[in-house]
Structure formats: C-alpha cells, structure tokens
Amino acid sequence: MTTVAAYAAPAPKAPLERTTIERRAVGEFDVLIDIEFAGICHSDIHQAQDGWRPGIFPMVPGHEIAGVVSEVGSGVTRFAVGDRVGVGCMVDSCRECDNCRAGLEQYCTKGGPTWTYNDTGKDGEPTYGGYAQKIVVDENFVVRVPEGLSLDVAAPLLCAGITTYSPLRHWNAGPGKKVAVVGLGGLGHMGVKIAHAMGAEVTVLSQSLRKKDDGLRLGADHYYATGDPDTFEELAGTFDIILNTVSAPLDFAAYLSLLRTDGTMVNVGLPEEPVQIVLQSLFGNRRSISSSGIGGIAETQEMLDFCAQHGLGAEIELISAAEINEAYERVQASDVRYRFVIDTATI
C-alpha cells in the first residue's frame, strides 16, 4: 500500500478538502502512474453532490487522468516506466461477457464496469479517482498519450473526448453529414472539434449567441441560438445527427423536429431529473433518439490517436488544487471555457 495526497469530498455536497488515501501495491499486471493533470468533469460534481445516486464517501473524483508511468508489475507488457499515459472513466470490467470481448467494456453486462471512482473494486475496496498524486491501474485499462498531445490538454479527452468521439464515429459523422452539437461546454466544444475533423458540416445549437465566435473558431460552420424560436422553424428537417451534450431537460419534440429522415439524436449529457419524450415527435420521418456512454479502451486509444493526428486538445483553464471548489461553482454557472484541469503537483 502507498499513501498519497488527494482531494476528497468528505460527505455529499461538502466542499472538497485535502486528505490522504491508500493506493494498492503494484500487482503483476498493474501500472503505477504519477498523475500530472486531472480534468474536472461535470459528472464529478453530480456524483460529489449525490445527484445521480447515493455515493461512496469520502469520494475522490476525477476520471480524466494524464500522467507518467513510474512503476510496472512483473507481467506488464504494454507499458514501461516513463511512458505518457491516461486513465478514463473505468478501471476494470468482467472481461468475459460479449460486450467486453467486443471492446465495449463500458457496457459490461456483468454488473457494469468498475468506475474509476465512486465504485467498489473486485478487492472490495472503494475506488478513488484522479484528484490525487498517484493511481494504480491494471494495464488493460490504461491508454497511451501520443506524442504531439501535451498531457494537460489530453487529460479531458479521457472523458470529454471519448464521450463525443464514440457516438460521432458510431453514427458515421463525416463528409456529406450534417451534425448539430447542442451546448458548447466541456463536452460540446470537443464534439465540435471532432465532428469538424471527421469532415462533417457542423452546427452549434446554444441558448444564445454569446459563444458564437468561439464556436466558429473551434470548427463550427454555423451557430444558432435556441432561445430564438425562429431557429427551430429555419432548421426543421436539417440534421443527420444531433449530439446533445447538456445535462438538463430539453424540449425534445422541438429538437427532434430538426432531424432529417432516419436522423438520430444522441444524448451524452445525463440530467439528474427524469425527462419526457413525446413519441409522436419520432413518427413521420423515422427519427431515432438514443444515447451513448464513453467508449471502450481500444476506441479510447483510437480517439487519442485521432486527436493527435488532427492536433485536437481540449480548451483548458489550468488551476491549482486549492481552486477546486471554486471551479465546481464556476462549472455550475457555465463560467469555464471549456475545461478546468488540475495541476496535481499542487495537491
């Protein structure tokens, strides 16, 4: 066991505070990572505040982890000391079900994957995330950060990047396809960058035009305000894919009306409250509504390689650990462009 410094929420809705946690000894197939940067995801806030389900406390959030390998187990073949690596939302799965064998570990059918934090590992101990100095992870759930991506802008790709890349790839975003990204935040800004790099025609749908210049700079071809009712009339029947990145209920009937025949609205934001779908809004043009949850390990590596190839990193604001609670408040107020990243040397 190794004692490391970390930032944890001691109880639901409590401010995060500096503490220490125990990391397991490096096993045969484990990798010890010196964490250099950890992104702050809105889901960290949802879970630290018991927004989705009762949490395990004290809770060390963080599933956008980038760092350097400092030790490997005797059986490790994929990584060596000094490698630049990342860890995302999960650190294990059953590895035996059809989904795991297909590289869809995020959809493990035997109880789901083991999440990087706010979960219980196979050893019966709570998992603790990336707001810490070090982490020990099985090599099968570690990915390589390619040269050309600095670790600070790569960290958010381990959630925001794969969460948007996976559905865009699955629903074949590319040349000839019209993609709308709902919300220009931590997820949305990466959705715009990735869809543009895939060759799609990209439109941002945001509440106002406040971030229009940013949206166009990041790769959007068009930018519309959803607060203007004329937007829904003008864009009716336009899009092949709508990628909804917001974590709040929407007027789904209005957004579904923007789809072409056989178009799909994919939801990657997860509101805390239930939402209602009017089935009549799906009829007539064979529209679909779906969802997507991160990506498997192989696809996460593919995403990182794609981002390195196209020079895509997250737009970040680097902060010290002492600023985490303020950052949480600013995320909830939509006052970040577009991802806070913790310099873990300050923990």
From TrEMBL:
A Pfam short name: ADH_N
Superkingdom assignment: Bacteria
Coiled-coil regions listed in the entry: none
Species for this entry: Streptomyces collinus (strain DSM 40733 / Tue 365)
SUPFAM superfamilies hit by this protein: GroES-like (SSF50129), NAD(P)-binding Rossmann-fold domains (SSF51735)
Catalytic activity from the UniProt record: a primary alcohol + NADP(+) = an aldehyde + NADPH + H(+)
Descriptive protein name: alcohol dehydrogenase (NADP(+))
Enoyl reductase (ER) domain location: 14-342
Lineage: Bacteria, Bacillati, Actinomycetota, Actinomycetes, Kitasatosporales
Keywords associated with the record: Metal-binding, Oxidoreductase, Zinc
One annotated GO molecular function: zinc ion binding
CDD domains from the UniProt entry: CAD1
Similarity comment: family membership: Belongs to the zinc-containing alcohol dehydrogenase family.
Lyase as UniProt keyword: no
InterPro entries: ADH-like_C, ADH-like_N, ADH_Zn_CS, CAD-like, ER, GroES-like_sf, NAD(P)-bd_dom_sf
Catalytic EC class: oxidoreductase
Documented EC number(s): 1.1.1.2
Keyword ATP-binding: no
Cofactor requirement: Zn(2+)
